[in-house]
Every structure is written in C-alpha cells, then in structure tokens.
Specification:
Layout lengths: L1 H13 L12 E7 L5 E7 L6 E2 L8 E5 L5 E8 L2 E8 L6 E4 L3 E7 L5 E7 L12 E7 L5 E3 L11 E6 L5 E6 L6 E6 L6 E2 L16 E7 L5 E7 L6 H4 L4 H8 L3 E6 L5 E6 L1 E5 L5 E7 L4 E8 L2 E5 L8 E6 L13
Antiparallel strand pairs: 1-2, 1-24, 2-3, 4-5, 5-6, 6-7, 8-9, 9-10, 10-11, 12-13, 13-14, 14-15, 16-17, 17-18, 18-19, 20-21, 21-22, 22-23
C-alpha cells in the first residue's frame, strides 16, 4: 500500500511539470527486457507508471506498433533463422503469426487499421546493412494477402526499406540508396513520383571519411513533417567490423542525430542526439540514445517548454523500441487494391 501511495504521489508531482502540459498522461507500449533479460511488451503511462506486462515470450518481443484505432498490436518475435511478424489484440491476447519466414523489420500500420507495411531484409551477412538489400511489403490482416508495396517499374529496381505511411494514406516515406548513400524518400503508395525529402549539409563526415546516411522516417500526426535519424551507420563500428576501436566507435556514435524536415523539404531542423524518432499523438518528437548512468536507453520528448525524459525503460534494461497509443480514432480510409 505504501508503494502504491508513493507512486500516486510521484505521478502528481510529475504532472505539475511540462511532461503533462497536455493534461492527462499519454500511454505507450514499450519493448524492454524483463527480469530474466528477455524483451517483453509492457503497457504504461508515459512517466513509466501503471506498468502492465502484455507478453511472456521465451524468445523476445520487439518493435511494437499500435494500430491507429488503438485496438491491435504488431510486433516481432525471433523464430528459427527469422524474425516473425505477429498480430495481437492491444492487451496482448490472441496473438497470431502474420509472416513466419524471413527477417521482417519495422512493421507499421496504414490508416485503416487493417493493412500493414514492413521491410524484409535480404542481406547474406549479419555485418551488412539490412537496408542494403531490402523490399517493402504490404499485408491485409483480415485476409492474409500480401505483396510488394511498390508496383512502379522504376522503383522495384532499387532496395527500399523502413516504410512509414502518411496519416492520410496517400504517400509513404522510406529509405533508399538509389542516389548513392541512404536517404529519406517520399512517394505515392505504388512507389511512383519518388523524391528526396531531406537534403544533408555534408555528404561525407570530415574526419571519419564515411558517408552521412538517413534512416527510420516517421510522419507527424498532421502529415506535414517527417522525423528521421541521420549520421554514420553502425555497420562501421567494432561489433560489425570485428576490429576493436573504441575511440572510432565513440566518434561514430556522436554523429547520430534526429532531424525533422517539412514535407516540401524546405524547412529542416536538428532535434538532438539520438536515434529511433517517433511522434506523440499530439505532435511532439521523441529520440533515444544510450545513457551509461542509466545502463540503458534514455528517451527524450520535446514539450512546449523544452524537453523532458520519458522514463519508460527501467534502468539497466535493454529495449526494442516503443509505440504510442493513439489519443483519437483515425478517419476511415481504404487503400487502392
């Protein structure tokens, strides 16, 4: 009982800060390690309170994605030589496999809460960038029908990855190296009318002599902005090269930043150091980065008065991303067949 009272009192204190400027605390579903070190899905408030475990996986659950209507949940779970795509109710009940084979990554929803998109990585070597040989797929969760998302003949010539569909369902932001290094592109759903969206300041890092790349695009709720990661890719760090070089690793990690760009590409700003950007339902950007003091990730969110930490991952725990639970139902929308 003392613990419960203390938790309620701390929640009251936190809600007096900018974290709760919008009123009631927002909710998230987070993938983080349980006491046994296995990634599980947890539902909680944005301050980490009211935490409820949703999964009890033996192999781990990661990359959750909540449907726009707030009723369903996508996530990934390792299988034999694969990352399987799962669908469950929002409370984790009635899980079922949507895609069993292959390395499936970064699933996300279309606005109809029925169709989903994701990237299927085809790299032959774990040290290879997953985006370098990847295709984007779309699946109907009711029928199980699936196909490659892009049908435009020009687009299927290239590797395309990390899809994020706009809130109105008309466009998709994705990653491609068709212009050289990996960049954020926006096109119609069939891949036509593709264009670069976020011009970089420099193409190559001055001292590292490595390309500056862009990954993980995420649309703002109003569809006017796209957040993304930018920096030197992790495949150049020691765990991937097999050559220990802590100083070089630190220099590479210092290039990691989250940026926001307007849909027309004319306005661009740096949010701050980190990776894995997302948007809260009311339009604030989050970013995450390793924190040695916490022994795990630190997740920050912009507010009307600056930035605040989202304490959604316990100290000393690994994590596998998180997803916001929508505050409002999305409009009815049906994609072209």
């Amino acid at each position: 009982m003392k613990t419960l009272i203390a938790a309620q009192f701390m929640s009251f204190l936190i809600c007096g800060t900018a974290l709760c400027e919008a009123g009631e605390l927002r909710e998230v579903i987070v993938s983080h390690a349980d006491e046994g070190g296995i990634l599980q899905l947890f539902r909680m408030k944005e301050d980490g309170s009211a935490r409820v475990q949703l999964t009890h996986s033996k192999s781990g659950c990661r990359m959750p994605s909540v449907s726009p209507d707030g009723q369903k949940l996508l996530y990934l779970e390792p299988g034999k030589d694969s990352l399987r795509l799962y669908l469950s109710n929002i409370d984790g009940s009635k899980p079922r496999v949507l895609v069993r084979e292959g390395m499936n990554l970064l699933p996300s929803w279309l606005p109809d809460s029925r169709h989903v998109v994701w990237m299927k990585a085809l790299q032959a070597d774990k040290r290879q960038d997953p985006a370098s040989r990847s295709r984007i797929h779309i699946l109907d969760t009711r029928t199980g029908a699936t196909r490659r998302l892009f049908s435009d003949p020009e687009q299927i010539k290239h590797s395309n990855a990390m899809p994020s569909v706009s809130p109105d369902g008309a466009r998709v932001a994705f990653v491609s190296d068709r212009s050289g290094s990996f960049r954020i592109w926006v096109s119609k759903l069939d891949g036509s009318e593709a264009r670069l969206i976020s011009p970089v300041v420099v193409e190559t890092h001055k001292t590292l002599k490595l390309p500056i790349e862009q990954k993980v695009p995420a649309w703002s709720p109003n569809g006017q902005w796209i957040a993304h990661w930018e920096g030197v890719e992790m495949i150049h760090m020691s765990p991937y090269t097999g050559i220990k070089n802590p100083q070089r690793d630190q220099e590479i990690s210092r290039t990691f930043n989250v940026w926001v760009v307007s849909l027309n590409g004319e306005k661009r700003r740096r949010v701050g150091p980190g990776d894995d950007p997302s948007w809260s339902p009311d339009g604030f950007v989050t970013r995450a980065f390793p924190d040695q003091k916490r022994g795990g990730p630190k997740v920050m969110i912009e507010t009307k008065s600056g930035e605040k930490e989202l304490k959604i991952v316990p100290s000393g725990r690994n994590w596998g991303r998180f997803s916001w639970i929508p505050a409002e139902l999305s409009p009815t929308w049906t994609p072209n067949p």
